[in-house]
Amino acid sequence: MNEATIPQKRDKSLVPLSREHHFGLLFCWKLRQGLKNGADLQVMRSYVNYFWNNILKVHCEEEEWMLNRLLPKEDPMQLQLKEEHRLLKAMIDLIAEGSPMNKGLFKVLQQDLVNHIRWEERQLFPYLQAVVNSNELETAGKLLEHRHAVQHDTFTPEFWAHSVNRV
Q1: Helix 41-51 crosses helix 15-36 at what angle (to 10 degrees)?
Q2: What does the H/E/C string look like for the chain?
Q3: Structural domain spans, the chain
Q4: For all residues of the chain together, what is the average pLDDT?
Q5: Are the beta carbons of 37 and 164 closer than 8 angstroms?
Q6: Which residues of 63-87 are buried (b: 16+ CB within 10 A; e: fewer)?
Q7: Rounded CA gap, 90 and 44, in Å?
């Protein structure tokens, strides 16, 4: 097994954030399936807005809140996290504002989000576990529990579930 495929032992303080990454990856899969199945881009735009407003925005805020507690402001990992969140939000804004709708916007968003989640799981979280005092990490995790509410993706219609009939 190479290093990328060895499962990471996740500190329990980071588990809620890590668990939500699954939903982010599922969001990306749904976008890919929608594109593959010829889904209506306006419905997909609605889904991107829904997912940002109900799940992803709060998730990004919680990650930034946690890193602000645990790392110095100038730490390169914290700077990268904030920059990647800013870029993801900019892409979501392009889609939300009705930028000329094309499949490319959705492709870029889903790929950037997949890459971002993989970076957090494979680099950021192990880094936090290595450089942050375990007591501080535990305290931040307990505080996060009080702020954190499990979100559910209940968007309909399920545009990703079936192909559009073509004439």
Answers
A1: 170
A2: CCHHHCCCCCCCCCHHHHHHHHHHHHHHHHHHHHHHCCCCHHHHHHHHHHHHHHHHHHHHHHHHHHHHHHCCCCCHHHHHHHHHHHHHHHHHHHHHCCCCCCHHHHHHHHHHHHHHHHHHHHHHHHHHHHHCCHHHHHHHHHHHHHHCCCCCCCCCCCCCCCCCCCC
A3: 12-147
A4: 89
A5: yes
A6: beebbeebbeeeeebbeebbebbee
A7: 17
Of the candidates 23, 14, 40, 15, which has an alpha carbon nearest to the alpha carbon of residue 151? 23
Does position 42 have pLDDT exceeding 50, yes or no?
yes
**Residue 1 confidence (pLDDT):** 47
CB of 165 closer than 8 Å to CB of 40 = no
Q: Does residue 124 carry a pLDDT above 50?
A: yes
Chain-centroid distance of CA 110 in Å reads 10
- The 3-class secondary structure across 36-67, one letter per residue, is HCCCCHHHHHHHHHHHHHHHHHHHHHHHHHHH
Residues 6 or more apart in contact with residue 122 via CB below 8 angstroms: 4, 8
